[in-house]
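Data availability (excerpt). All sequences and predicted token strings are deposited with the supplementary files. A representative entry, NAD(P)/FAD-dependent oxidoreductase, is shown inline so that the format can be inspected without opening the archive.
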Amino acid sequence: MLLGFNDSRPPEDSDVTVVGLGPVGATAALKLALRGLRVNVFEAGLAGDGELGESRASTFHPPTLEILDELGVSEALHETGLVSDTYQYRDRAEGLVAHFDLAEIAEDTRFPYRLQSEQQNLVRIIRDRLAELPNVRLFQNAHVRSAETDGEETVVKVAGSADPGAPAVEYRSRWVIAADGAHSPIRHALDIGFPGITYPEQFLVVSTNVDFAELIPGIASVNYISDPREWLVLLRTPLHWRALFPISPDEQDAATALDPDEIQRRLQAIAPHPDGYDIVHSRIYRVHQRVADRFRVGRVLLAGDAAHLNNPLGGMGMNSGIHDAAMAAEAILAAEAGDTALLESYEETRRSVAHDYVRVVTHENRDMLREEDPAERKRQNDHMRRTAADPELARAHLLRSSMLASRIARGARALT
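Structure token line:
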């Protein structure tokens, strides 16, 4: 049931409260609801109505597709997406360095590819499913301020406005999954630390309708292009091509990077296009590497950006958040049936994945693309060539980059 939040409506208790209807909260809510639990979902905005032109996460890795397939939404997501079964490492000066084909891991997963689709497509698909379920109440324009837990019960305070002075209503449930984003009010209310770093450079993301496949023969749908001065990621989505560039911290005014002439300069440096590039969307954002000190306090479980942030190089942020959601939901379902083992291991497992795997891999990706030392750049390129040429090494690399060869696989794929 889809509802607008109304603080005059008497609150109805539920088995589980899910805070946030991004990809993470949506996945958790659907998994719990399909297993029969009563779920209240609170979304601060309009559920699933974000702009598709806003360039957010768009890569779904194989283990994520397996989770979504088990929830019955994979087919609909595929209808909105683009299958990308290869990716490349390139060098600005040398061109193609290494080409990887995910067919090498076809024996390891039902989905030996990445699916490129804007995250909002998944949110809309799941939102529509949730709206049909009688055991789900989905509240829009509902601002959760805090969560408390004591033994057998949790209480969230919800207001109909972001205004701190707006009246709040208390909703009770046995569990809370906090998927309320990087600025998580629940994480703040529980006084959970969020240590880490903010990168000195900002990132510029630009989308264009110009087809780079016509300008660069043999280019893959996903490309990591190294350069000591201006590395980038270039990938294709169903709607357009997207380029991500770093903005050096020594640039006097990062906002000048949004100047149309400057954007044209960056794109023309990738591949000359005499007619100029039409720009569909552009924005600048800061990038963080942070992992919360706690992923669970009693009956409140943190998931997704509320629990960890990482740079986008490798497409692991949304995916690891969805894996959090799957494990959190499964842990609650098991605890409801009397088995708390998975609940007790949730924090250790998911925090270890975020801290020891996702954080490390994404940081390595950034360092490799921006390496300045010529000898080290040559060593890295030679290593990538050898890896791509050796079937055994290539498979190991693909399992790691696709998030199959980590504790994520055990924490998200083997939850029963």
